[in-house]
Amino acid sequence: MFDGVNEQGLAAAVLYFEGYADYDLPIDNKEAIASLDFLHYILGHCSSVDDLKALLKNIRIVGIPTPSPKRPLPYIGLLQIKVANVL
Asked: DSSP strand E in the chain: where?
């Protein structure tokens, strides 16, 4: 579906897999991040996989219905790597 790389070299991709994704409901003690925004959120807040692991303790990925098909889209397959010396 979409991917990105930030200035620190953290790369991530989000894939669409029908029937393989379920999302949590928001809860008061964690920041709710829409599944559609998750990739951009982590690339803006994390510089390493360790940063992402720490961040995941404080957020909750929630499904937000889209205009079409009026349900959360099944995004999974998030891949994080540290990119170095790539040509």
From this structure: 2-5, 10-16, 31-34, 59-62, 75-82
